[in-house]
Structure formats: C-alpha cells, structure tokens
Amino acid sequence: MTNFIRLIARNRLAAFGGIMLVLLVLLCLITPWLPLDDPNITSPENRLKPPLSAGHLLGTDALGRDILSRLLWGTRVSLAVGIAASLVAAFFGSLIGIVAGYFGGRTDNTMMRGIDMLMAFPYILLALAIVAVLGPGLMNALYAIAIVNIPFFARNIRGVTVGIAHREFIDAARLSGKGHIRILASEILPNVLPVIVITMSTTVGWMILETAGLSFLGLGAQPPQADLGSMLGEGRRMMLNAPHVAVLPGLVIFLLVMSINLLGDGIRDALDPRLKSGALSRPAPFTHIRRRQVPPENGSAANALLDVQDLHTHFEVGRRTHRAVNGVSFTIRHNECLGLVGESGSGKSVTALSLLGLVASPPGVITEGRIALEGRDLLDLPHRSIRRIRGRNVAYVFQDPLSTLHPLFRVGHQLIEAIQQHQAIPRQEARELAVSLLDQVRIPNAERRADQYPHELSGGMRQRVGIAMALANNPQLIVADEPTTALDVTVQAQILALIQNLRETKGTSVLFITHDFGVVSQVCDRVAVMYAGRIVEIGPTADILDDPRHPYTQRLIDCVPRLGEPNNEPAAIPGLPPAADALPEGCAFADRCDLAEDACLRGDIALRATDSDRQVRCIKPLGLPTRQGVMQ
Amino acid sequence: MSKPLLEIRGLTRTFGGGRRWFGHDIPGVHAIQGIDLDVAQGETLGIVGESGCGKSSLARLLVGLDTPTAGQILFAGEDLQALRKKDRYALSRRLQYVFQDPLSSLNPRKRIRDILAAPLRHLRGLEGTALDRRLSELMEVVNLRPEFISRYPHEFSGGQAQRIGIARALAAEPKLLVLDEPVSALDVSIQAQVLKLLRRLKDEFDLTYLFISHDLSVVEAISDRIAVMYFGRIIEQAPSRRLFHSPAHPYTRLLLDSAPVPGGPPIRAESGESELPDPLAPPPGCSFAPRCPKAEPDCRQAVPLLDTLGQRGDHRVACHHPIEGPWRRLDTQEVNETANE
Ligand SMILES: Nc1ncnc2c1ncn2[C@@H]1O[C@H](COP(=O)(O)OP(=O)(O)OP(=O)(O)O)[C@@H](O)[C@H]1O
Ligand code: SF4
Ligand code: SF4
Ligand SMILES: [Mg+2]
C-alpha cells in the first residue's frame, strides 16, 4: 500500500490531482458546518451582486442566492451523483462482465449481444431517452448516466475475466471443490478488482460531466436544488451582464473533473503491473556500458573468433543490484560449437544477449569486460557498427521463434527484409535467396511456405524459419538460446541435425545454450557450465561428461535421469541457487556442496586450469591426481 | 492382477463439430479416440507422446475438468459420470490433478494457507483446529517450512510452487493422482527433488499415479508401466522395462532413437516432415503411416487395433507389422547409411 502511494506521488500530475481532489472533497464534507447562507433562500433585492461584495464572497445569482453557498452545496450533489452513478455502473457492468467472461459460450453470447445493442445507440442520446422515459430529476439522471456506462464496464471486465477464467488456478479451484459462485467471488473477483478500480477512476470524472450535462439541459437537478450543471444552465442566460454566475460553476466543474482524471490516470499507472516491472519504459536500443577499466587483449586467444573476458552484466532495480553475469570468460574458435549449460537464472541468456548489447537498459548495465570478435572489442564500437554486426556477423536463434517473427507478415517477406538489411540486392533475387534458405533448413515445399504467416506453421517449422532468418546473411557465429527446449524430441533431433549440417557445410561457429546435457553431448565440442552468473567449469564435452572436476557439474549430471538406466535413481541437489542480488562471498555453490570447507567461503575463487584444455572454479577439484593417488 | 483401480473403456472426446445452420456440417476434431486403459491400485502408469497427441485432454477427462463424448471411466468399479451426477465432489475426492506450470496453477492473490484450505474445507469438511492441524501436516509432507504458509505464490521458486501444487492435490486425500508434466517446467536439479518427493508420497499414502510426460527418461525413471500415445490413440503399452528393451511400434522406436542421452551415441533424425497428421483430415488407416519407415499398403487401409504381443499378454501394440527383438540405438555407421539413403 505504501508502495502504491509512493508510485502515485512520483507521478507529479497525479499527485497534484489528488491534492486538489482531497481539498475539494474536504470542502464538500465540511460545507454543512460552514457559516454560509442557505443556498436556496432567495432575496430578489440582492440579485446579481458581483463577487467580493459584502456578505457574498462570490456574489449572488439572478434570484439573489449566495453563489459560494450554492457552489459548495452543488459540488456536493454533483460529486455524490457522479460517484453513485459510477458505483452503480461499475457494479452492474462488472457483474455482467464477470459472469459473461467466466461462463462463456451461450451465456456470454446472449449477454454481450445485449450490451452491443445498448452500445449501438449514440451515448448521450440514450441518456436523454432514458430520462425522457423516467421523467426529469436528479435520481433519474443518475440512473440514466449509470445505465449508459454499464456497457463500458461490462466489456472491459469481460475481457479481463476471459483471460483469467482460462488460467490453471481456476481449474485447480474447481478441483478443490469450489462451486461457480465461490470461484467467481474468491478467485476471479480479486484478480479483476484492480481493473474495476482503474476503470472507475478513469470514468468517474466523465460521469460527473455527463450528469452536469443533463442538469444543464434541465433534465437533472430540479429547482431550487443546486448542482453544478443546473447552476451553469441558469447562469447561461445572463452570460453577458453577469458572467460570474456561469463562469464560477464552469470553473469548479473543470477543476473537479481535471483533478479526478489526473488522479485516475495516476491510479491506472500505479496499478498496472507492467509499469511496476519497468516494461513500459522503452529500453534503449543498446545496453548501457559503464566500464571502469578494459581488460588487456588476450594474446592466447588471438586466433579465436569470439573472445569474451571477465564480462559483468548487472541489473540495477531500485536500490538492488542483480549480478546476473559476474565475470564470464570464454572463447569460441572458428567452426566450433561451445555449449553453455546451467540452471534457470544462472545467467546464460544474459551472457548471450550481452554479446551484442541486446540486454534491456534500463535496468541492464555492462560494468566490466571485453568482448572481442576477431580481435575488435565490441564494447568499444560505435552503435552504427554494432548494428551492422547484428544479423550479419552474429545472428541469434531464440527458444520462442515467435519472439523474432512478426505475426502479421508472411515468413518469406520477413526473410527478404532480413536479407536486404545487410545485402544490397534486388527484391526478386532476395526472394529467391529466401526460398533457398527455407529449402536449406528442410522446409518442404518452401516456395509455398514462404507465403504463409507464422501462425500457420507448426512449432518445429517456425523454429526452422527462425534458423533460416539467422542464416540469411551467412553469419560467422550463431547464438542459439535453447532453440529446441520447446520442441518434441523427434523435431529436436531434426533441428540438431540441421545445426550440425550447417557447421559442416558453412563453417559457422555456434554458441549453444541449453540446460540439457543430452543435447550438449550431441552437438557441442566444448561445454561451459554456469552457476550463479559465473562459469564454474569449461572444457571438452566428452571429458566433462565422463569426468567432471567441479562438484556442481558432477551433481548436475547425476540428477539427470538417463534413458535406459531406470535403476540409476537421479540424485537431487538439495537447496536452491543463491539469488542474483545476494551472492555470497567465496564459492556460490558452498551451501549445497558436500565438500565445502571454511576456505570455500572466503575470497574470490579463480577459474584455474587443471588440464591443458580444462578449467575449473573450485579449490578442491574432483578426480585430480594428488600425492596420495587420485582424490575422490 | 486383481481388479484394476481405474478402467477406461472406449474413451472418446471430440472437440468442435456439430451442425451449422447453413452449409456443411463442421467436422469435429478427435482429441481422444477410443482409449482403453487399465491402471492397477498402487502402480505408476507413465503416458508419453508428443505435444498435441492428446495427453492433457485425457488427463482432464479423468479428473472431471472435461466430459467425454463417448466411453466410460470406472473407478474402483463405479462409473465416474454416474457418480458425479449424484455428488459433484465425488471425483475430486478420488482423483486429483497436478498441473504442469506450478505458478500459473496458484492464484497470485491468495496466500498458500487459503489455497490449501479450500480442498480441506470443501472436500473434507474440516474447520478450525482440525483444519490447522491438517495444514501444517501437509506442509510437512511436501517438505516446506511451516512459515511459508502465509506467503503469496510469487514468493516461491518453481520447485517450491510445484510442492504446493502437490500438497493441494493431496489435501483431498485422493486415491489416484494424475500428474500432467509435473516436472517439465523445472530445472533438472529441482526435477530430481520433486521426483524423489513423489516416490516417497506414493509409498506413504498408498497412491496410484498416472504420470504424463514428453520426457522418456523421466517417465522411465518413475513408471512401472508405460503407454505411448500418438494422435489421440494409445499405440503401445507395456511394463516399463519391456517397453524400453524391445519396443514393438515403429513410433516408439522413433522416440527412443530421437532422445539424446548424455555421453550417448548420436541420435537419429527423421528425414521427412515430422508432423502430426492434420486432425481435420486424418489419414486413412494407421495415423503414423505417413512417417513410418515400415509402412506397407495394408497400413493405409485399416486402423491397427491395440493387440497383445506374444504370450505374456502385458505388452500390447497397435501396428500391423510390429518390430521384434531388442532395441539398440543405431550406431554411427548406420546413421550415415540412413543419411545417404
Ligand atoms: N530485465 C531484468 N531485470 C532484472 N533482473 C533480470 C532481468 N533479466 C534477467 N534478470 C536476472 O538475471 C539473472 C540471469 O538470468 P538469465 O535469463 O540469464 O538466466 P538463464 O540462465 O538464461 O535462465 P533460463 O534457463 O531460465 O533461461 C536472473 O537472476 C534473472 O532474474
Ligand atoms: S570451492 Fe568448495 S564449496 Fe565450492 S564447489 Fe569447490 S569444494 Fe564445493
Ligand atoms: S501399422 Fe503400418 S504404418 Fe502403422 S506403425 Fe505399424 S507398420 Fe507403421
Ligand atoms: Mg535463458
């Protein structure tokens, strides 16, 4: 709750609206105790006094009534009617929306058709018609305004409810023995309540305006009762000789509606979960880089395609710093496939995205490191050069191909765009190239498939298109982030074969991110194991799988069930990895490690070479020859 | 084998379809086509198959989240649909469901206490101190710290959330748990923790499991018996050891050939399209025929029925030309040969 208030306060306009509204409401609340004249007492001898006359601070109207008093009492009435109308509209509208959205099918159809019929009439005409039937009067105006606003609520709330009704926790509640009424009241309602509040806060201002409108036309408040609309209506007739009679209520309407709408927008923003996570703030096209020093060139990696040294990528969220990537170093040689394995949250994706500055900023910042592609430090290059490297030298394939494919364009068209971005060739030629790319990734009937939309393809097909996009400009390096995780094993086998084939025929290098050791052993020459933002072991795949040196690698391999060995019960690793914003000192794996000792908890543990081509970050690596023989 | 706990007979579920006011009738999509399956008390039956083959549709039919178009489900000899007409909570007291995505199966706006209390209240009629006692028992059973009970779901990791999902299912004191990909969303290290917990719970509460997964190695690790589904049908069914030793259906062999094993031999990839058939225009005869290396002309004429193989009677396969002999992953040489074909 305090958080909510802080969010509103941060939004200056909303805070301004809020303060203004509080003042207005306070004034309305204390009106009965203020030393004011009776708002309805007429005194013809005092008619149309200008503001600041004795006894009448804001003057009097055509019947000699005190305008200040009438304004305050009138605001009270307008506010009350507006709020009451929006409560009524919110109640019935939400009820219809929730019921229609939850039950769906025929119930939904019938109810929403009714709502559509209401909406078919022009809005204010409908309100007029309702008042015409019910007869003029404040209460009837209230009903009319409430009724014309019901469809607005019903549609909004129905949309949200449909989304929620299909979530799994609703099924879970059903299986817990909850009936429809209980599910509606205790599962659905709490989740749509924020939306109801948002909708109300953004409509209440309009409803006050609409009520004022009806009163202005003489259909709302009846004389002698004052509300803002009727005061405006009465004042209109003497606009020329006594403008203050109309201007003052107009001003109050303006202030009231403006303050409510400003606050309403603030409430909407504060309650919108997307805003809290910063998703609506547009990220920069390149990750911010804030390096204090640059690691020197790595002589030994001179002939590598990609050389990453001591990469640090942090997320700065509020006062916390999530150290997602915390000193990662690796090289990829020409035509090599390096696997990057690790549990969820270990920093695999952030490492991959950091390479070309694709980490969202804010909150992401690259704080240290060097990323050399054929000797050029990418973190030093101007954005223009990076943009040229993206897609041409280095291409990405993601787990969800839909994240790179636009749903509204044919896949062929998207491939042509990708090709023409880096190659100046005519469209017809690009189209031929696109079709041949689809052919290369073994899409049957490529010519026809090129004219289909992404949603017309199966998951496996889409991933092939994703790979074809990555291949469009013959990149030197493909970064594949879990490209097969969402696919069935038979499709996965085909995609893996495709990637192997590309390496053989085109000499492409691959950074292959996965959490599946089986997949690693199929496609990777070397593998790096990540834990809590660091590489804890790196070396040739077969060596690491047969003979892991880091206790974490060993435990991770042991907890994978192996096909064909049902007796070999997977051994769980107790506990959880540390949170990225609270990394411990010393070895991050220490609290889950059987071999941990005091020395593991102190200082920085370096990644050191144990064999000619293997490195491990542990003070007691497994399986190394010692003086007593092989350490166990 | 004594009388099975769960007997599924000719279970069918068709989506959509029906008559239009104008024009042709809309053809229905058969998600489940005439499934026959028995599950014995105390056993773990694994169900494997690719996405879209009907695994989850089957699971939802069993727990009563959906109603079959045809066929019968008997639980301990009683017809579930008839039982449900008498008492709408009857199913939930006997069969419970564990969801794939642990977080989306927990209402983000409810505390764990409320989530777990619902089945205790509505299905077991517990209140007051009895309810509290049972709540702390449940937390203990799934290895969660007691103070977690007053937290909200988003404060939990995937593995912890899945334990809550399991506790919620156990609260109803069911006899049978339908676990729909319960560890697929979890990391391997967490997956092993949850599998271990599931094994322990099964012994402790004398449960029967129907364990659905697309991951062969996970299913093998936990199941006594396995049924393989393809395109809405069960195409092979056998005790776990036997199925992995000598799978008889070409599709089962394809699955095994495609699954990568750490340090294992290279996997084999199908050369053609590896797509499920179009459900709106199913192929005639065996639905696997378009992909099957063993397909013969007769395969495209008659749908093969699930039939026992050999004398033992516990291995059943739906194929006109089942493959005999033990399965062995093709070695590298053969892979090259297939590639050159
Ligand atoms: N936009 C962000 N804001 C704050 N923290 C983030 C953001 N993106 C990622 N993180 C954090 O960075 C860490 C590493 O995340 P990353 O996505 O690289 O993990 P991963 O190894 O790819 O995991 P997975 O296997 O789930 O894909 C995590 O702790 C994550 O919470
Ligand atoms: S450094 Fe210590 S705690 Fe860390 S993995 Fe090695 S032995 Fe275990
Ligand atoms: S019936 Fe024929 S097509 Fe179907 S799986 Fe058996 S051999 Fe293959
Ligand atoms: Mg990732």
From TrEMBL, chain A:
This is ABC-type dipeptide transporter. Residues 75-264 form the ABC transmembrane type-1 domain. SMART domains: AAA. InterPro entries: AAA+_ATPase (IPR003593), ABC_Ni/Peptide_Import (IPR050388), ABC_transporter-like_ATP-bd (IPR003439), ABC_transporter-like_CS (IPR017871), MetI-like (IPR000515), MetI-like_sf (IPR035906), Oligopep_ABC_C (IPR013563), OppC_N (IPR025966). Belongs to the binding-protein-dependent transport system permease family. PROSITE patterns: ABC_TM1 (PS50928), ABC_TRANSPORTER_1 (PS00211), ABC_TRANSPORTER_2 (PS50893). GO terms for molecular function: ATP binding; ATP hydrolysis activity. Gene3D superfamilies: MetI-like, P-loop containing nucleotide triphosphate hydrolases. It is found in: Cell inner membrane; Cell membrane. One of its GO terms (biological process) is transmembrane transport. Its EC number is 7.4.2.9. The chain crosses the membrane at residues 12-34, 79-103, 115-135, 188-209, 245-264. Keywords: ATP-binding, Cell membrane, Membrane, Nucleotide-binding, Transmembrane, Transmembrane helix, Transport. It is a peripheral membrane protein; Multi-pass membrane protein. It comes from the Bacteria.
UniProtKB/TrEMBL annotation, chain B:
PROSITE patterns: ABC_TRANSPORTER_1, ABC_TRANSPORTER_2. InterPro entries: AAA+_ATPase, ABC_transp_ATP-bind, ABC_transporter-like_ATP-bd, ABC_transporter-like_CS, Oligopep_ABC_C, P-loop_NTPase. Belongs to the ABC transporter superfamily. Gene3D superfamilies: P-loop containing nucleotide triphosphate hydrolases (3.40.50.300). It comes from Vreelandella arcis. CDD domains: ABC_NikE_OppD_transporters. The keyword Disulfide bond does not apply. Keywords: ATP-binding, Nucleotide-binding, Transport. GO terms for molecular function: ATP binding; ATP hydrolysis activity. One of its GO terms (biological process) is transmembrane transport. NCBIfam families: oligo_HPY. Residues 257-287 are annotated as: Disordered. This is Peptide/nickel transport system ATP-binding protein. Residues 6-256 form the ABC transporter domain. The keyword Nucleotide-binding applies.
